[in-house]
């Protein structure tokens, strides 16, 4: 009411009394006031400085999270490592069509997996810190985000995560993990092959590392052996492919021939 009376006393004339609304959106130009290309100004102002600064902070955090990754990752790596590893081995749990289940059923999707990971970490229940031992509350929380079936599978995966074998385990420590390979289901072995292929893309394998991959291939059946060879070949890393070919090439040919004979 006070503002209305004041406006009435001034006759409703505010021109010159208040700054124009456009003043809220003007930021001082830091440099480049006279820079133009085809009539477009290329100056750098405070808003641009804030945007660039926030981008650099985000990039820095991402690099810090991915720097020196480990088999059992730290808190920042939880989504990038453990949950993605779970989805890689259990792709059916990434997304479920709500139309294919009963109304009201909680279904997993990429966003719900992200929210689950964030919530667990805020509860000091980071899956990466519970890897190898699990926790009953993980199932209870996961059930609300991704549904019962996915929650059961995820909780079991977390409780057994210490037994997950990485590409580095095969390349550098094969003798230490050789016995553990006997207990790995086919899905886990396939995941190991995918990890080796990912590692092969951007890394140069030493002769010793290639030899360890060759030793790993000897534990595989014909179909998985061919899968390993195809995965490594698709990376296009010729030096690694050549080293592995010397070790497994003959057996791969034999496995392919055997497969054709069965057909």
Commentary on this structure:
The protein has 263 residues and is mainly α. The protein has helices at residues 2-9, 46-66, 79-89, 110-122, 127-130, 136-146, 148-159, 167-181, 186-202, 207-217, 222-234, 238-262; strands at 29-31, 36-37, 40-41, 44-45. β2 (36-37) and β3 form a beta hairpin. The radius of gyration is 29 Å and the shape is extended. The model is unreliable at 70-78 (pLDDT under 50).
Q: What does the secondary structure layout of this molecule look like, with pairings?
A:
Layout: H1 2-9, E1 29-31, E2 36-37, E3 40-41, E4 44-45, H2 46-66, H3 79-89, H4 110-122, H5 127-130, H6 136-146, H7 148-159, H8 167-181, H9 186-202, H10 207-217, H11 222-234, H12 238-262
Antiparallel strand pairs: 1-4, 2-3
Helix pairs in contact: 4-6, 6-7, 8-9, 8-10, 9-11, 10-12, 11-12
């Amino acid at each position: 009411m006070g503002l209305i009376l004041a406006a009435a006393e001034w006759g409703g004339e505010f021109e010159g009394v208040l700054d124009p609304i456009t003043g809220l959106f003007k930021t001082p130009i830091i440099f480049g006031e006279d820079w133009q290309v085809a009539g477009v100004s290329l100056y750098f102002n405070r808003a641009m400085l804030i945007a660039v600064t926030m981008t650099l902070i985000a990039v820095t955090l991402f690099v810090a999270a991915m720097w020196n990754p480990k088999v059992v990752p730290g808190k920042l790596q939880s989504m990038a490592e453990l949950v993605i590893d779970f989805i890689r081995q259990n792709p059916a749990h990434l997304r479920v069509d709500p139309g294919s289940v009963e109304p009201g059923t909680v279904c997993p999707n990429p966003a719900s997996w992200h929210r689950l990971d964030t919530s667990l970490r805020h509860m000091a229940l980071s899956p990466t810190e519970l890897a190898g031992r699990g926790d009953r509350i993980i199932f209870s929380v996961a059930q609300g985000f991704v549904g019962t079936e996915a929650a059961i599978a995820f909780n079991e995966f977390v409780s057994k995560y210490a037994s997950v074998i990485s590409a580095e385990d095969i390349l550098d420590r094969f003798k230490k993990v050789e016995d553990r390979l006997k207990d790995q289901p086919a899905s886990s072995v396939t995941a190991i092959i995918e990890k080796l292929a990912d590692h092969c893309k951007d890394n140069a394998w030493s002769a010793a590392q290639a030899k360890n991959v060759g030793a790993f291939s000897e534990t595989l059946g014909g179909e998985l052996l061919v899968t390993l060879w195809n995965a490594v070949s698709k990376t296009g890393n010729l030096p690694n492919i050549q080293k592995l070919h010397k070790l497994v090439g003959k057996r791969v040919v034999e496995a392919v021939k055997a497969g054709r004979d069965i057909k």
